[in-house]
Design goal:
heterodimer, A: mainly alpha, 2% strand, B: two-stranded antiparallel sheet, two-stranded antiparallel ribbon
Chain lengths: 711, 392
């Protein structure tokens, strides 16, 4: 059999890439991270994955179809990769090259040698593994696509969950997860069985069944009681906090009502999913499967081998379920009448809303913080999406507007030269500050001011650059961004902007509804329980899971504006400018006004996020707003899909959320980020979620295709 | 529709209403007027500083020399930007990393030679080796960029290669950081003595009991001189940088003007398709362009490190932006323009803080400010042909 040179070449290229990965120290860092407790480290998984992938790709390149040919080529390519790495290990162990290559340490050699005492033995194991796994990867080409994809996806999910296992601190214990899954499944099944009825009837029955089950649970809880004084346990796991207070007070009515309601809600949700569009259905299955897997993880505390296997089973089952029933569900959706469809969509939207509202309470502070920052990036991304995605005005200095928003809000809500009427706050005695500094306002006013100021500054920036084209525009905006950063950093403006120390002691977002309930007698407030408490005292949103809600409001507002504008005349004008300015102008689009509107609105979104950022962090520094952030935002909308609104969310999660959650990647985040940009541009320039064609164009296309184009 | 357009046109050229036309004139040229106002303000500041006696001739000459040296570096890097832009109409955002790569790799060579003593004994050859290594490294990075990141995207809409370049730039910075660590590497002091016969009063010391005067130290020397009544500290390295840059630029200009490859480069930059039809190997020409730009950047890198000493993986960013400003200033796509732009920017940057009484913290703002002013007032640059289309 002749050996195809191409597959050897593949092995060589991948080997060189892995050489680089090893030399920058990634393998060292990964080897300290256990994905499956005490058994598999991230570096091991990486090597295994790379060998399999090498074999797979090389076998494909070889053009052979028979198992022998595939296996041999895979083995050869995998072996080459392993050989290159072994060479590095030998060098690392014999010579000290750390003066030049700081990460090529003897530890690296040990990692590559699978921790064996004898280097030679370890490296032989490495080469053997490379060959065998490569062969397996090559043989993987023989598998039919479906099992292959499913298996791949399940393993990937396990790795991701394993990497996140320290962060995911859910209150969803295994019993809770099982109950939720069960109730939803019951609702799903019930609705499915009665497919001949109207959707509303189906949902009602599902709700009834769910409520009944909830009732049974409640009775079991009341009769059986909960054990343990500190954290009451029942059904084999800790009780959710809401139930705890009711159980403690022996509030039987409360327990029954709560569980019945929850049962009904989950039943209805399950029922609605049985007749939903394919995408929604898939989303629902993914979320439920994830909850279940997390419950399993939570029961053991870490990902041990049994947990990993159980999660694998759950995920594979979910994937199979998804493919089989998604078609069924979307078929059912097609048969629904419009009124029924609205009902289904409303239920699912409500369920989604509840889920989104509850999420921060289920996750750890760390992940909530990540989610918050992702949310801020989403707002910036939506703004930049309008400027770059819709209108095509390249902007590399967007972080500057975020800075303007944050600084404006920060300045307006703290005592300083501006708000104290030109007097330095340091010279005012503490008790007089409130009376002298009349300019200091609450967050809410500051928020509005920030939005307006940022929008205006966007328009101001837009004016000089109207004439500029593509690359020049990029560089000028980059220059502006840097100018703003340097100005905020400088001593010249220190009295107003705080210089390198920035603005400090910014008050948090506070909700003060006490004015509303000022007239109420105290007994009424007491009866309202927690709600009364909430109304009476000023609430300061300081913790990540509290700021989450204000960020959610910001996102919803910007999302709404984005969506409406995207499908409006202005949005079409923007897209026309992006495609070809001259033609747009000839068609009557006022270039100046449209471009300035794009800049103004886009930057105003930054103001929305910037003000929240200032109040969340409580103090802001010039170095929070570097060029890197601008590039981050630009990349997230490009990788998510330029001009597509869901793409912004995906992009933010991928570029910012995932690496933040994965500590090990911190050092290499920018490296992978740069590589991701290049690879995405080379392979999939339209991004992960390319923009959908706007509605009118879609309708036009449909109309044309139905009638046929009659000349 | 036709009537509407006609109305608009009539309105725009309506000379019967003097107020309207004056307002129209101002609003159309608002930017230019604003830019000129800023310029006038700056000039006034400068004049008043001189008049107040806070700015002496000595300061000026000192800063001018430093500015010319710095500007030469910018010019050399700017040539890389301008060459690539001329051929591919794209900004090679990662050129700053090409510059950095040369300097960084050059460090390892000069460091090794310093430790072994080779540097002190055979300074000339050592320097040649360092330059060669830096050029090789820069060229390698540039060619790699072209083959992997730019070539597949040659026909893509303009945004995509730009993003790719940004990604490549970030990647290269962090790759160097990951491979070699982020702590700064310091170029050793290099002493390159020349002309002991002419400068027989300089660098005198006792060696083996005999007094030896080694001559002018080209790289590290500092000498007090009196030129036309002005007291200066003269560093030959600045002079060396300037001369080297001039020589390289003249060589490049001649290369592009006279050699066959140079002609091919000009042809490809004018019209790629026709050049290909004429039998020119477009790929090879493009690679040659990248190689030339990278070689110049490598030379610039070593020169920069010789008087700046510190080398880090992120050192390329600021000189890169300034070099790009210089290229635009001189007219992008224009070789002599890049040279002029670089020298001009270097001088302005060096002289302005004292002359215009701008705090030195805001020094970088000057470069960005120049960029913005140029792009507003004269996008084609000082010496450039109009490669940009004005819109809106």
């Amino acid at each position: 059999m002749n050996i195809s040179g191409k597959s050897l070449q593949t092995g060589l290229y991948i080997g060189l890439v892995m050489l680089f990965v090893a030399m920058i120290g990634m393998l060292n860092v990964f080897s300290t991270r256990y994905i499956v407790a005490d058994t598999l480290t991230l570096s091991t998984i990486m090597l295994v994955g790379v060998f399999l992938a090498t074999g797979y790709v090389a076998a494909g390149q070889s053009g052979k179809g028979d198992p022998a040919g595939l296996g041999v080529h895979g083995a050869l390519a995998g072996g080459i990769v392993a050989l290159i790495l072994s060479g590095l290990a030998l060098i690392a162990s014999q010579f000290d090259v750390r003066y030049v290559f700081v990460n090529v340490t003897p530890e690296l050699a040990t990692v590559l040698a699978s921790g064996q005492e004898s280097l030679v033995v370890g490296l032989l194991i490495l080469v053997a593994a490379g060959a065998i796994l490569g062969a397996l990867g090559g043989l993987g080409r023989l598998l039919p696509p479906k099992p292959r994809d499913i298996g791949l996806y399940a393993v990937l999910m396990i790795v991701v969950i394993g990497m996140l296992q320290d962060q995911i601190n859910t209150i969803i214990a295994l019993p809770d997860a099982l109950l939720i899954t069960g109730l939803i499944a019951v609702g799903y099944g019930v609705a499915l069985r009665r497919s001949r009825d109207r959707l509303q009837t189906r949902l009602l029955i599902a709700a009834a069944v769910g409520a009944a089950l909830g009732l049974i649970l409640a009775l079991a809880l009341i009769v059986g009681g909960a054990s343990g004084a500190g954290t009451p346990q029942a059904f084999g796991g800790p009780l959710p906090p809401i139930l705890r207070s009711f159980v403690a007070e022996k509030n039987a009515a409360g327990i029954i009502v709560l569980l019945a309601l929850v049962g009904a809600a989950l039943g209805v949700t399950g029922g609605a999913f049985s007749a939903a569009t394919g995408g929604t259905h898939t989303g629902g299955v993914v979320i439920v499967a994830a909850l279940l897997a997390l419950g399993v993880l939570n029961s053991a505390g870490r990902m041990t081998v049994p947990v990993a296997l159980a999660s694998l089973v759950i995920l594979i089952a979910a994937r199979l379920l998804m493919t089989r029933t998604a078609a069924q569900a979307s078929q059912a959706y097609e048969t629904l009448k419009p009124a029924e469809r609205r009902v289904s969509q409303t239920v699912i939207t409500l369920a989604g809303l509840v889920f989104v509202l509850l999420i921060p309470q289920l996750l750890s502070n760390y992940i909530n913080n990540v989610l918050d920052l992702v949310g801020l990036y989403v707002m910036m991304g939506l703004g930049l999406n309008i400027v770059v995605g819709f209108t095509g005005l390249l902007n590399l200095g967007f972080a500057a507007f975020f800075a303007i928003g944050a600084y404006t809000s920060g300045i307006v809500t703290t005592p300083n030269l501006l708000t104290c009427g030109g007097v330095s706050p340091a010279s005012i005695p503490a008790q007089d500050i409130a009376t002298v500094c009349t300019g200091v306002t609450t967050f809410w006013v500051g928020w509005l001011v920030a939005i307006v100021v940022t929008g205006l500054s966007g328009v101001l920036l837009g004016v000089p650059v109207l004439r500029l084209r593509g690359d020049y525009l990029a560089i000028v905006t980059l220059g502006f961004g840097e100018i703003i950063r340097l100005v905020t950093l400088s001593d010249t403006f220190k009295p107003y902007l705080g210089g390198a120390q920035g603005v400090a002691n910014i008050p948090p977002v506070s909700i003060n509804l006490s004015g509303l309930v000022a007239g109420m007698p105290p007994e009424t407030l007491q009866a309202l329980g927690p709600l009364g408490e909430f109304l009476r005292t000023p609430q300061h949103l300081t913790a990540p899971n509290q700021v989450y809600y204000i960020i959610l409001i910001g996102i919803l507002a910007t999302l709404f504006v984005s969506y409406r504008l995207a499908n409006s005349r202005l949005g079409r004008a923007w897209r026309a400018i992006r495609e070809d300015e001259d033609v747009a102008q000839a068609m009557g689009v006022n270039l100046v006004r449209t471009k300035l509107l794009a800049m103004g609105i886009g930057t105003a979104f930054c103001g929305v996020g910037g003000a929240i950022f200032a109040s969340y962090l409580r103090s802001i520094f010039p170095n929070s707003f570097t060029l890197l952030i601008s590039i981050n935002v630009l990349s997230l909308i490009i990788i998510g899909g330029l001009g597509s609104i869901p793409g912004v969310f995906v992009g933010a999660l991928v570029i910012f959320g995932l690496p933040e959650a994965l500590r090990e990647f911190q050092e290499y985040r920018l490296l992978m980020f740069g590589a991701l940009l290049v690879v995405t541009m080379l392979l999939r320039p339209s991004g992960i979620i390319p923009p959908a064609t706007p509605r009118l164009e879609e309708q036009a296309e449909k109309a044309l295709s139905q009638e046929g184009v009659k000349a | 529709m036709a009537t509407q357009v006609g109305d608009i046109r009539a309105e725009m050229t309506d000379r019967s209403n003097p107020a309207a036309s004056a307002l129209g004139y101002v609003s159309r040229n608002l930017l230019t007027i604003l830019g000129l106002i800023v310029l006038a303000w700056l000039i006034w500041r400068g004049v008043s500083t001189i008049a107040a006696g806070e700015y002496t001739l000595e300061t000026f000459v000192r800063q001018l020399i430093f500015g010319l040296a710095q500007g030469s570096i910018y010019a050399l890097i700017a040539l890389g930007y301008t060459l690539v832009y001329g051929i591919l109409r794209m900004i090679n955002f990662a050129h700053s990393e090409v510059f950095m790569a040369g300097t960084y790799i050059g460090f390892f060579f000069i460091d090794a030679m310093d430790h072994s003593g080779f540097l002190a004994e055979n300074t000339a050859i050592s320097l040649l080796i360092v330059f060669a290594a830096a050029i090789a490294a820069s060229v390698l990075v540039a060619v790699g960029l072209e083959r992997i990141a730019y070539r597949p995207l040659r026909n893509a809409p303009r945004l995509i290669p730009l993003i790719t370049a940004i990604g490549a730039s970030t990647f290269l910075q962090r790759a160097f950081q990951g491979l070699f660590g982020s702590s700064p590497r310091v170029y050793p002091d290099v002493h390159f003595y020349v002309f002991p016969q002419i400068f027989n009063t300089l660098e005198c010391g006792v060696a083996e009991g005999v007094e030896v005067c080694r001559g002018l130290d080209l790289i590290s020397g500092r000498y007090n001189v009196n030129v036309f009544g002005v007291e200066l500290v003269f560093r030959p390295i600045y002079f060396l940088v300037f001369i080297t840059a001039i020589i390289m630029m003249v060589a490049l200009t001649q290369f592009v003007k006279r050699t066959k490859t140079g002609k091919a480069m000009r042809a490809v930059s004018e019209d790629k398709a026709t050049a290909a039809l004429m039998g020119i190997n477009v790929d090879r020409v493009i690679v040659t362009t990248f190689v030339l730009g990278a070689a110049l950047a490598g030379v610039a890198g070593v020169l920069f490190a010789l008087y700046n000493s510190q080398v880090t993986p992120t050192m390329g960013f600021v000189p890169g932006i300034k070099a790009f400003t210089a290229a635009v200033l001189g007219g992008i796509g224009n070789i002599s323009g890049a040279a002029v732009g670089g020298l001009f920017l270097g001088t302005v940057e060096s002289v302005s803080p004292s002359l215009l009484d701008i705090p030195s913290q805001l020094k970088d703002v000057i470069a960005f400010g120049v960029l913005v002013l140029v792009l507003i007032l004269r996008p084609s640059g000082i010496m450039g042909e109009v490669l940009t289309e004005k819109k809106a």
